[in-house]
């Protein structure tokens, strides 16, 4: 074979090899493009399935699950620092939660996100109330609380079980519900906010303090006499100072107590000090040794908080927690002018504005939104209420 023929064949072979390489490269690119298209379609399908069944994928580590509300319309988006508000939603008190959230939202332009802690059997009812009323544009996250979390931490005494409401302990677990938040507000459901919640959120906490509360000696609202319990504004009203575990703490029995129905929490400090673990320790010890006062008339969530935060908490402005509106004689204790000037009203006590006879129900009525499912109905026993 001549040299020219060999060169020609070699050139042809080189061209064929180059063509094959080009073809392989094209096939690889096509395969990559195909995979990208498949991935995008799968992601779109996943998003679709989530939108169709948002409960299918839990949003938080068990035992808690969460769901975020849809994005707000651009014209309704609030700007500024996010203010996380934690509030509980028991089925029999959903109307209270709705009124509380409505009052908070309507009286502020702040960027509020409600973290609503509830039970599995209440979620559907709550969702309807949040989506079928004017609360449908309120940023919120629904968090499911698992009562198994309290195993071994609450009493097994059948005579006391009626007073144990699992959701009342939700405030102990705020860093779990909102792990990325540095600061948060906890609110009981029997409150109405008349001021701008931004002001409460801006409460200054002293260095090293994980929470701020309203001291029970800070204003006229603190001097309540609870039937069967005497003066309920000091530590002896909540703890049994005859028990050795309480004696060892060296706390003064006449120390002014505080009300945990409103909490401004520094969650960074809360986590650093392992506050939740400390609270659980005292819950477990009480279940074993019965450390609480026998005359205790208030929530059993208060005593462990009193122990853990003994002389180590900041204070909330008294006008941001005017309380005992649910106690006997509240209508005589407060003038209408004072109630109107208060930034936050708290109906702690036996008489709630949506149930039995209570004072200043007209204030609560202003913020209540009727239940679209018609399950919750405010019950009034005095003339003039509709």
Report on this model:
Keywords: Glycoprotein, Glycosyltransferase, Membrane, Signal-anchor, Transferase, Transmembrane, Transmembrane helix. It is a single-pass type II membrane protein. This is Glycosyltransferase 8 domain-containing protein 1. InterPro entries: Glyco_trans_8, Glycosyltrans_8_dom-fam, Nucleotide-diphossugar_trans. This protein has twelve helices and twelve strands. By secondary structure, it is of the alpha/beta class. It has one domain (79-366): Spore Coat Polysaccharide Biosynthesis Protein SpsA, Chain A. It has an eight-stranded mixed beta sheet with strand order 1-4-3-2-5-10-7-11, sandwiched between helices. Helix 2 (94-106) links the parallel strand 2 and strand 3 (111-118). It is globular. Residues 41-63, 71-75, 222-231 and 381-386 have low confidence and may be disordered.
């Amino acid at each position: 074979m001549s040299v020219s023929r060999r060169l020609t064949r070699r050139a042809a072979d080189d061209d064929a090899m180059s063509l094959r390489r080009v073809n392989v490269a094209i096939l690889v690119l096509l395969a990559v493009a195909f995979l990208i298209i498949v991935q995008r379609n799968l992601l779109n399908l996943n998003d679709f399935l989530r939108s169709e069944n948002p409960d299918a994928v839990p949003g938080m580590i068990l035992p808690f699950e969460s769901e975020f509300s849809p994005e707000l319309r651009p014209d309704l988006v609030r700007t500024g620092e996010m203010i996380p508000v934690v509030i509980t939603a028991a089925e029999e008190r959903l109307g209270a939660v709705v009124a509380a959230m409505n009052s908070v939202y309507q009286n502020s332009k702040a960027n509020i996100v409600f973290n609503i802690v509830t039970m599995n059997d209440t979620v559907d009812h709550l969702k309807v109330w949040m989506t079928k009323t004017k609360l449908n544009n309120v940023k919120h996250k629904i968090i499911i609380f698992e009562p198994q979390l309290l195993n071994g931490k609450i009493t097994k005494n059948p005579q006391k079980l009626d007073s144990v409401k699992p959701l009342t302990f939700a405030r102990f677990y705020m860093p779990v519900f909102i792990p990325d938040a540095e600061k948060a507000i906890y609110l009981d459901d029997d409150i109405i906010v008349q001021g701008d919640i931004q002001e409460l959120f801006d409460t200054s906490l002293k260095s090293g303090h994980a929470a701020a509360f309203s001291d029970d000696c800070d204003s006229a609202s603190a001097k309540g006499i609870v039937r069967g319990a005497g003066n309920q504004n000091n530590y002896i009203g909540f703890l049994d100072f005859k028990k050795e575990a309480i004696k060892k703490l060296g706390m003064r029995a006449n120390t002014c107590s505080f009300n945990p129905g409103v909490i401004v929490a520094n969650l960074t400090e809360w986590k650093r000090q392992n506050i939740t673990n400390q609270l659980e320790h005292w819950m477990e010890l009480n279940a074993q040794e019965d450390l609480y006062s026998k005359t205790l008339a208030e929530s059993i969530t208060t005593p462990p908080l009193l122990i853990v935060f003994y002389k180590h908490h900041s204070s909330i402005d008294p006008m941001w927690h005017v309380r005992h509106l649910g106690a006997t004689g509240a209508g005589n204790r407060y003038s209408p002018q004072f109630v109107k000037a208060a930034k936050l009203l708290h109906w702690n006590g036996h008489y709630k504005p949506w149930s039995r006879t209570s004072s200043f129900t007209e204030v609560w009525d202003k913020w209540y939104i009727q239940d679209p499912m018609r399950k919750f109905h405010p019950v009034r026993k005095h003339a003039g209420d509709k």
